[in-house]
Design brief:
The chain is of the alpha+beta class. 38% of the residues lie in helices and 21% in strands. The protein has four domains: 215 residues, Histidine kinase-like ATPase, C-terminal domain (Heat Shock Protein 90), CATH 3.30.565.10; 136 residues, Ribosomal Protein S5, domain 2 (2-Layer Sandwich), CATH 3.30.230.80; 111 residues, Rossmann fold (3-Layer(aba) Sandwich), CATH 3.40.50.11260; 136 residues, Heat shock protein 90, C-terminal domain (Four Helix Bundle (Hemerythrin (Met), subunit A), Up-down Bundle), CATH 1.20.120. A nine-stranded mixed beta sheet has the order 1-6-5-4-7-3-2-8-9, covered by helices on one side. A hairpin with a 5-residue loop joins strand 10 and strand 11. The structure holds adenosine-5'-diphosphate and magnesium ion (MG). The site of adenosine-5'-diphosphate has 15 residues, from helix 2 and helix 3.
């Protein structure tokens, strides 16, 4: 017996003792070897005049014998000589396994995972077989040889028989056993069944270029006997027929103009287990230094587990029609995690491991192109099929916003224009670009309000105040919205009509346009401003003057109210937002980064109850034109400190109520209201 080389032995050891559940990939590995062998012969016949293939079709055949527990994978490819059997099956030569060796040195646990994820070629047969026999006859040779091993110490090579060139790999499968706890253990019997093998071939090797054939049991009606009577019931019999199991030509290799959308839809639904047609099908073929085919789908609805931890993103990765990985995560950014599809590139090695994958420049180049393509297709959908896009955004918009937030705004260039928000003025979803385009020329910022209910937001005094000045307000109702806006800080609106600061310049420009010139355009940086935070700088000169006066005259009142409210508020001040008698008497605004709504969102989160949660800096703004303000001023003048105190508390609580926040002490609040009545 010949001994395996040391590293082969290590690997075999792991194969045999592998606890990896995905043992079924062995079939993919053996079929891919068979396909390579057929490929080599095919290539030889094309490039070498002396090699003449007969009428026989190049094919791969899978068969099994349940009693003998054997599974055979045969090909009529190039075959191997005795020397080649020794060289190819006695050592590990290929890249994937070399890689594996170094990792194996560090930790066995990880290595087991690598076997399952990426396969390590021929030796994977020992995950399911207790004995492997390879009968091979090289093309052009008269003799055959048999390589045999139980995968432990070594192997033998002896002369044997084979009618034609090619190779049979005959596995004697292990017994299906119960595990130590008496539970059903590994089920090897499914590799000895028609349905089990068909399923695996379709799943992993469907697009191998050569036919993968198998005898399949079918049923047919027996011929009706001559003497059949009136009451003859048709009889059936089983028979077997050789069938090609794989579909051979992958749909993603075809030009999209040659494929009906309905075929794409069927492929999508069957492959990705969806009931609905995809919202968008994206197909492209990259040529040049890196060649690959891509077929991507935007689902019509979100899978139920999309926002759970268990959801796995990724595209199926094929190399020369053989599935390498069902979900290659590195091909998709997180915010496009909903995209399903296939990348097929002959330039990606079959035995690539996850570690190499991340550093693989080719793969990164594919990922970049895929991302760009998805972005442009979504933009196209937004512009040309708005209804579908709005539905798409309902399903997946949260991920896009989160993409901006989690990248600290770095991904805003890519994603901001894909977002939709509710416009309080238009009463529909708009993009930021559409918002900017509709702005009056003196508007300097994008205004928004955040809260959980659109209805309530649209009635809030801080919102109606801005609307009444002719500016639209975006109503943000998702938790992530305001965090997204804060990480963006600004939005750059492209190609807006130029605003001229001084009149002379504007007149010159207007005249030029009148003379037939194109109007000048500019990009404008627009700050994203919460209507309930900081200084909106919207007040007119008159309003500012009024506010300043009211502030100066009533310093004592504000001090008293601030004292009554304690550290609930940073300060009490005259409002520049509420400026007429028919508006609310007061509102709560905030200073600094954290808005009231963000504070609420954080409190709802997992650490919401913890001490030291950041709090917003609240300001109680008073409407100096409101009758209640006059009452306050009067109470202060009368020296009625009790009344000032009670009013301060009431105004604060009711302003919070408008924001959807309950008073800290509802009983005291109710008592105050009653005592006033
Ligand atoms: P890889 O396919 O990555 O080279 P494998 O471990 O799968 O690695 O196979 C090792 C080698 O054994 C192959 O490169 C090939 O030379 C040879 N081989 C395996 N199966 C066959 C086959 N069916 N016909 C001819 N050669 C084969
Ligand atoms: Mg291989």
């Amino acid at each position: 017996m010949r001994q395996f080389k040391t590293e082969s032995k290590k690997l075999l050891d792991l194969m045999i003792n592998s606890i990896y559940t995905n043992k079924e990939i062995f079939l993919r590995e053996l079929i891919s070897n068979a396909s390579d062998a057929v490929d080599k012969l095919n290539f030889k016949s094309l490039s070498d005049e002396s090699v003449k293939l007969g009428d026989e079709d190049l094919a791969i055949r899978v068969s099994f014998d349940r009693d003998a527990r054997t599974l055979t994978i045969s090909d009529n490819g190039i075959g191997m000589t005795a020397d080649e059997l020794e060289k190819n099956l006695g050592t590990i030569a290929h890249s994937g396994s070399q890689e594996f060796k170094t990792e194996n040195a560090e930790s066995q646990g990880d290595a087991v995972d690598i076997i399952g994820q990426f396969g390590v070629g021929f030796y994977s047969a020992f995950m399911v077989a207790k004995h492997v026999r390879v009968v091979s006859r090289a093309y052009g040779s008269d003799e055959a040889n048999v390589w045999e091993s139980d995968g432990l110490e070594g192997y033998t090579i002896e002369p044997g028989e084979r009618a034609e060139h090619g190779t049979d790999v005959i596995l004697t499968l292990r017994d299906s056993e119960a595990d130590a706890n008496g539970e059903a253990g590994d089920d090897y019997d499914r590799f000895l069944s028609e349905w089990g093998l068909q399923d695996l071939i379709k799943r992993y090797s469907n697009y191998v270029r050569y036919p993968i054939q198998m005898l399949v049991t079918k049923s047919r009606q027996k011929p009706k006997p001559e003497d059949a009577g009136e009451d003859y019931k048709p009889e059936y019999e089983d028979y077997q027929e050789l069938e090609t199991i794989n579909s051979m030509t992958p749909i993603w290799k075809k030009r999209s103009s040659d494929v009906e959308q309905s075929d794409y839809n069927e492929f999508y639904k069957a492959t990705f287990h969806d009931f609905e047609d995809p919202a968008r099908t994206i197909s492209f073929h990259a040529e040049g230094t890196l060649e690959y085919d891509a077929l991507l789908f935007v689902p019509g609805r979100a899978p139920f587990d999309l926002y759970s931890k268990d959801y796995e993103k990724g595209l199926a990765l094929y190399s020369s029609n053989v599935l390498i990985m069902e979900k290659c995560a590195d091909l998709l950014p997180d915010y496009y995690n909903f995209v399903r599809g296939v990348i097929d590139s002959a330039d990606v090695s079959l035995n690539i491991s996850r570690e190499t994958l991340q550093h693989d420049r080719q793969l990164r180049a594919i990922a970049r192109r895929v991302e760009k393509k998805i972005t442009s297709e979504l933009a196209d959908m937004r512009d040309n099929d708005r209804e579908t896009y709005e539905k798409f955004f309902e399903n997946f918009g949260r991920g896009l916003k989160y993409g901006i937030y989690s990248s600290y705004g770095m991904k805003a260039d890519e994603l901001a224009d894909l977002l939709l928000f509710w416009s309080a003025k238009e009463k529909k979803m708009v993009t930021l670009a559409e918002y900017a385009k509709a702005m009056p020329s003196d508007q300097k910022a994008i205004y928004y309000a955040a809260g959980d209910d659109r209805e309530r937001l649209s009635k809030m005094p801080v919102v109606t105040g801005v609307l009444s000045r002719g500016y639209d307000v975006l109503l943000l109702t998702a938790d992530v919205d305001e965090f997204t806006f804060q990480s963006m800080r600004e939005y750059v609106a492209r190609d807006l009509p130029k605003v001229y600061e001084d009149d002379a310049a504007r007149e010159v420009a207007e005249k030029a346009v009148a003379d037939g010139a194109e109007p000048e355009l500019e990009d404008r940086h627009l700050e994203l401003k919460n209507v309930a935070s900081g200084d909106l700088d919207l007040a007119t000169e008159d309003e500012k003057k009024d506010a300043e006066e009211a502030t100066k005259e009533n310093e004592g009142l504000f001090d008293a109210m601030k004292e009554a409210l304690g550290d609930k508020v940073e300060k009490v001040a005259v409002s520049a937002r509420l400026v007429s008698a028919d508006e609310s008497p007061a509102c709560i605004t905030t200073e600094g980064m954290l808005s009231l709504e963000m504070e609420k969102v954080l409190q709802r989160g997992p650490e919401g109850d913890m001490e030291g949660m950041p709090k917003s800096q609240r300001v109680l703004e008073l409407n100096a034109k409101h009758p209640v303000f006059a009452k306050l001023v009067a109470a202060q003048k009368d020296g009625d400190d009790e009344k000032v105190k009670r009013y301060a508390g009431l105004l604060y609580d009711q302003a919070l109520l408008v924001e959807g926040i309950l008073p800290e002490d509802p009983v005291a609040f109710a008592a105050s209201v009653c005592s006033l009545m």
